[in-house]
Amino acid sequence: MSSIRRSSASSRSRSVSAPRRGTSSPPAAQSVAVFSNPSGEPVTAKAVLNNGESWLTVSGGTTPAAVTASVNPNLAPGTYSAAVAISSAANTVNVPVSYTVVNLPPQLSVSPLTASLNLTQGASPASGQVTVSNTGGGTLQFSAQATSNQGTWLRVAGSGSGSATPSTPASLSFTTDPTGLTPVSTRARSRCRTRTRPHRPS
């Protein structure tokens, strides 16, 4: 009766880390090379998980084979442990698996970056809007301030502050008032800053 063994390169446990995002993608599948003597032995692979978890999926084959393990990306931050049980008719080999999900720090993104408005002198105030997005993780706390090279014709609506998550962007409104301005191209900017401190891994 033949028995299975792992290659020397695959004899260690598998440890994978992945960032946590609102729409994260799974890391690449990991593989374990499996051999038998003689070759051509059918092998099965089963994920051995704790407490009814289902974050690990594996596949078997016929030796020489590469048993692959894939993970579910939609997990809360933390470290998950399991094992892959690779079995033939003769014996079973267990490969420990560790999967760590870490939080990404919030990341500020604003769209559009430039807004051009054409207003008639003496016209009524006009409004505009930009979208504040969080392309990182967690909750982004931000504040906005309007600055101009001529007067205070640009104002940020409301408190100028808010929050955004990876799945829920925020709208930031502003108003432009041409009263008192001469017919000339006038520039201003609305600065949007995050109040969240940079994330440092523990």
Amount of beta strand: over 45%
Unreliable parts: 6-12, 196-202
CATH architecture of the largest domain: Sandwich
Number of domains: 2
Can you summarize the main beta sheet?
Answer: 5 strands, mixed
State the helical fraction. Answer: under 10%
Order of helices and strands: EEEEEEEEEEEEEEEE
Report, as a whole number of angstroms, the end-to-end distance. 50 Å
Overall shape: rod-shaped
> Kindly state the mean pLDDT as a whole number?
78
Instruction: Enumerate how many helices there are, as a single number.
Output: 0
* CATH domain class name of the largest domain: Mainly Beta
- The tally of beta strands, per DSSP, is 16
Structural class: mainly beta
Assigned CATH superfamily of the largest domain: Immunoglobulins
Gyration radius from CA atoms, angstroms: 28 Å
| Strand ordering within the main sheet | 2-9-8-4-6
Q: Indicate the CATH topology of the largest domain.
A: Immunoglobulin-like
Task: Set down the secondary structure blueprint.
Blueprint: E1 3-6, E2 14-20, E3 30-37, E4 42-48, E5 56-59, E6 61-62, E7 65-71, E8 78-87, E9 92-103, E10 108-111, E11 126-134, E12 140-148, E13 154-156, E14 161-164, E15 170-176, E16 188-194
Parallel strand pairs: 2-9
Antiparallel strand pairs: 1-3, 3-7, 4-6, 4-8, 5-7, 8-9, 10-11, 11-15, 12-14, 12-16, 13-15
